[in-house]
Amino acid sequence: ELNSTWNDLASIEHIVVSHTHRGKGVAHSLIEFAKKWALSRQLLGIRLETQTNNVPACNLYAKCGFTLGGIDLFTYKTRPQVSNETAMYWYWFSGAQDDA
């Protein structure tokens, strides 16, 4: 799910790749599509969130040029099945924010 936010960023809400297609560059292609989508709408970048236990996603985002912008220790505290997870917020900026 891809949408724009109040602060001129695109937001990726979900990236899901079936097990049979993982490791084939599908997620990377989806992120590259999202970058082009954001730029075509004159957005300044992309934000997304994952959890500390999702190491493959964290590695993917770093490889795609995202920077860890912050963590939230309490996002999942009300969900007993995942209450020990920490939310990680990742950002990619297009460079256009320098012109704004």
UniProtKB/TrEMBL annotation:
**A Gene Ontology molecular-function term?**
acyltransferase activity, transferring groups other than amino-acyl groups
InterPro entries per record = Acyl_CoA_acyltransferase, GNAT_dom, Streptothricin_AcTrfase
Specify the N-acetyltransferase domain's residue ranges: 1-96
Q: Which PROSITE patterns match?
A: GNAT
- Pfam families, per this entry? Acetyltransf_1
Q: What is the protein's name according to its record?
A: SAT-like protein
Organism name: Escherichia coli
